[in-house]
Amino acid sequence: MSVLQQALENGKFGVTAEMAPPKGCDFSEQMAAAELLKGKVHAINVTDMQSACLKASSIGLCVKLKLAGLEPIIQMTGRDRSRMAIMGDMLAAASFGIDTMLALTGDHTMVGDCKASKPVYDLDSVGILRMLSTMEATGKDCGGNDLASTPTFYKGAAVTPVYEPQILQINKLRQKVDAGARYIQTQGIFDLDALKRFMDEVYKAGIKAHIMAGIIPLKTAGMAKYMNENVPGIAVPQDMIDRLAAAAAEGKEKGVKGLPARLGIEMAAEMIAKIKAEGLCDGVHIMAIGAEKNVPTILEKAGVEI
Amino acid sequence: MIITQKKPLEELLGMLDGAKTVALVGCGSCATACATGGEKEIADLSKVLEQHGMKVVATAMSEYCCMHLKTRTILKPVIAANPDAVVAMSCGDGVQVIAQYCKCPVYPSNNTMFLGESVKLGLFEEACHLCGDCVLGKTGGICPISRCAKSLVNGPCGGSRNGKCEVNPENPCAWIEIYNKLVELGQEYKIGITRDDKGYEKVSYPRTINIRGDKK
Ligand code: SF4
Ligand code: SF4
After folding, report:
1. Do A124 and B153 lie within an 8 Å CB cutoff?
2. Which of A21, A53, B10, B66 is the most buried (most CB within 10 A)?
């Protein structure tokens, strides 16, 4: 059984971290960062060309992580693959013991770095989940033909809590869960009240899934401002931005580098600790965006062990 | 209607390289509405081609270039003029119909862009991808296949900002428009319906439809 599934279904506070394959074929940096995460997280999400920017495929790093004794979550978007390609990749992943996946519709090629690529979208996130659930239930492939052997996956999906009108995301979340998603990772959360309001809506809608709050450790005030302006569903409150700016000013005055990033780690740890203490969510998903080596520190400061 | 856009003149001249006599064929429907193949555009292009040393030996206008019967008839004087090349000022289908009846090469003066509507004079918007299994009855009369940049059928992605599409912020998010329209219609419940996966069998091309009740 999937390690993440075991944790979440036994009522443990789930912890996942996110990692991107390299833009190239040398995975050593990723593998080194992953070693630091061993024993600290239940699983590591491997992104599938996030922001539609070309990277090595998710499956490659997933296999490497698995072989190194780590638990990968294979992210699968509908942007670049038809249903046949998705199912084929999932069968191949299963052959390496990869048993946890996250289905995403995927950012459009037009927002990425290879705009000439054909956006496929044969299936969206709901379609991918439904296809895999049907496969698991019937032992048949996407064309309705018998498979010689059939894997099962612990399936997840994503949600954007800060969205107007929110009912549309709640509705889509319901469809994802109906289609087989058992755990949900949210877009980066910075405002716990907004998270609470979202969770209330999830309960009211009667949606049953393990929700993991997305945590993005901020590095600078500029990064926060940039994300507010450019990343859908991200809303960093002004006071957080102000604190980061103040830390930068303090660092400049004292001639110390990295104060804002350190504050970002503190703020992320604080949020995780609160989410856990107040039982707001069933776990957290940390998106460190290249600073995966900080994840153990964040978890330690938050007092979270797996 | 089929929305067309004029090709750059250099591209057309490149195709016509070596032709001394040309004939122009316009289209009285979509291409006229798009100002890419009406009477005025035929006159304009005639002048330009003459300036480039070609002789326009015939012009013709089909009410609908895409209808063989009509087009075959209007092509008679064009064929009789025996030009080195024909310029078809229609959509891509019109070009192909005309090409079937001409012995000389037929070149397109337009790029065929999309199936859409004339919102107002000179403004055209894409509105249908000919998906073969129309879902408009469930989506408040707004097409998610052509108006959502990802052709999503189960509701929006998470990428919309301020009601705009993540792919092109000049476009509204189709799913937010669908939602607003369904609320207006009192059909809000339809937003929660997971749509059947219609797949792509129906768009395997080229397709033929025959309602004649006899053979082709
Ligand atoms: S759903 Fe959209 S693409 Fe399909 S037939 Fe209807 S309008 Fe056209
Ligand atoms: S923002 Fe809206 S219209 Fe654009 S791709 Fe996402 S769901 Fe489709």
Report:
1. yes
2. A21
